Fold each of these.
Amino acid sequence: MLPFRRFSNEQIKDLREGNEPAFQHVYLFLAPKVYSFAYRFLKDKTQSEEIVQEAFITLWENRQKLDEERPLEPYLFTISKRLVLDSLRKATSSQALREKLMLKISENHNETEESIILSDLMAFAEKAIQELPKQQQIVFRLSRFEGLSYEEIGERLNLSKNTVKNHLVVAVKTLKTHLGNEEMIYALLLLINFF
């Protein structure tokens, strides 16, 4: 697999503005990586090719949401991962089989690529979290990173359950707004305890 590479701010800006050669450049560089990623889980050439096409169509359709200050690869791989998971969900009719597949995915992921993507995503997320008011930061971290319930957070911070809930609701709204169209980061923050 090719090493993780960031596209220049100018290349991302060109892509955002609808420059087809910029899109072709991104496609030529990242399509093999997306295919490899999809094939690793789907084990089907046709389905994997469809994932590549759908991922790049989604990227093109949402190109105006791109921010040249943020890396493109995590965004594209989040799209790809969602498409792979959707494909697996559709292919599995029983909950037990679905859970086995999800477990297998989490066990078989590419450690290096995933850790680089996760590292970038977490850097963006951490910056946004640090901009929250102190109490919201604490509540958010206890909820999302330590997995504590409203009651447990309230006990620890000597706050009511409703106050904890309000802090968390405002923090999540603020983060979603701050992170803009980076839904993948927002989803990561909300689901971090799942993985």
Amino acid sequence: MMTTEEFLPYLKTVGTGPKRNRDLTKDEMKIIMRAFLKQEVLPEQVSAFLLGWRVKGESLDEFAASIEVFDEFVQQEPLENSIEFGYPYDGKVKNPYIFPLIAKYLQKFNINLSLHGGLLQPAKGGTTLKEICNNTPLTDNTYYFDRSEYFPELYEFSAIRAKLGLRSSFNTIEKLLNITQSNTAIIGAFHKPFVEKYIALFKDRYKKLVIIKGNEGTPEIFSKCAITIVENGEVEEIKVDPKDFGIMYSKSAERISLETSLELVKNPSDELLKLAKLNAAVILFLTDKAESIEEGFELIG
């Protein structure tokens, strides 16, 4: 157990105000993150650090160091022909999850979906991936990994994060954890600055990194969006608009409950099915199984 006095110097780096706060070195950040995950720091100090770190503003080195420590704890399960999807842990609010429909379209192409989730984290208060996976029959090419099993040390932070009720630095770095050693990862980003952060943090961890700037920061396409593709050190951006494929989907103006989300996928409308088909076509293009999204759309049939 790290004593209060031993942790205090680290806490001061993020908790003494704009003039005296400073970024931590990678070695310092690794010491802190290991101590957190091993529960060697008092919960009150953990909470104080998380708030101070968020207010100070996280550096890329601090994020990178934290991810490297995560690697020491995550229980990996390599999965061939898989794509890792990085869904946010604060859930979805105004769109259903359509990955069960996407997975069905991809079955015949030998593409496995690697998904990971857990308890709801602040601050959106949406429906979680975990809730969907626990209440929906999954296809044989869909693999769900629960945080309580693959990363129990971070799972134990759920109570502290829930009590804080605010978005924390973990929200940024917990979405892609390389559980299945996938060559390709797809992550969603709502704000442009996060696209740049994700490129810096994850480009060397996957052969191909895909960032979808779409709805609610998820890796699912519901409306016109930009897709950033990072491969072999090259960065390319493409645009995708469902209307170009004759899809006229409108998101809900109200919050969607878990029950409604499940029902929409169980009995999908024609527009939702076409959206899922488009998402599958994008994946075929990204995995080089189609030369274009249009060709992928045709291949699905």
Amino acid sequence: MDNQLLSLLSPSDSKLLTPYFKPAKFEQHHVLFEADEQIRHVYFPTSAVVSLVITLSTGETVEAAMVGSDGVVGASAALDGKVSLSRGIIQLGGEIIVCDIDALKSTALKSPNLLSLLIRHEQTVYAQAQQSAACFATHQVEARFCRWLLRARDLSGSDNLPFTQEYLAEMLGVRRTSVTAVAKTLQEAGLIKYARGKIQIIDAKAMQRSTCECYGSVKMLYEKLIGPIKK
């Protein structure tokens, strides 16, 4: 399947769950669920990318984790988490396989392999959130900007990313002026091209040299817990 976790299902688990899979297409910025809201479905992205976002009382937002075809959104609810801890929003529009939450829970409780896979995946999401907290506290905006774009590129499989400066500023938890300054610097260095609402990554290898250690750390933890990310 086009989702890495689903491709790792055993034939028996896949047979049990497939009748409950419903392919759906979601547009960019669509909200899947709000924080502290009961989750009724589990989402396995195939081409879409989802941001898990924390919203503060001031209205400011910051991204805690990003999930694409490498994972699942809402699995903790299927494991009796019941309510969401963050807002789930479509970062990049595309296809998602939606699964009934009760079906996934029932199958997971009967399958040690599936239960282990879901728990390990939730560990990767938690690890992302931890890494993001450390990154926000210690790393410069340019390094964080590069890390975020590279992660979005990895999950979308595209060098062309439809992000506005306002959206990037929200996800990074910084002022728009900071994003503008970084985008200008990277464009002048030949790493990206930026037009209104669109970013094209020109030199990904150079961006990897400009990013912080968090980019590699998140990938390493995923591969340790789940396995190599499929291209």
Amino acid sequence: MVYLDTSVVVALLTPEERSGHALDWFAQSRQPLISSDWLITETHSALGIKQRHHGLRSEARLAAGEQFERLLQGGVELRSLDRDRFHEAAALLLDPVLGLGAGDTLHLAVALHSLCTELASFEGRMQQAAAALGMRPALE
């Protein structure tokens, strides 16, 4: 299974330098895609930031939000965040080598609990941490 990070989702939904790579990967992906409920909040936050600071028009933000809902309905399985995942994320935060913030450790805690073997992310530090935890990159 592949854990889907917000960085890839946002590249799928809005024009970015990495959007072509994300779209090609997504079109060819055949493995089950897993993420957490945190993806909902984080994606809408990223879209808001793009609108406020990077010129994403209101209509484009609305369209991206609708496309996001279709993406979720089309096969991304969202895992619930229970208290144990928050404790697992907190334990990951204790490792200074990983060097991650709360949101990324929460994603990784869900990925590890879900037995995902790959991580789809454009965030270098998160990819390094996932590799240290035994996950392979889904995007080259």
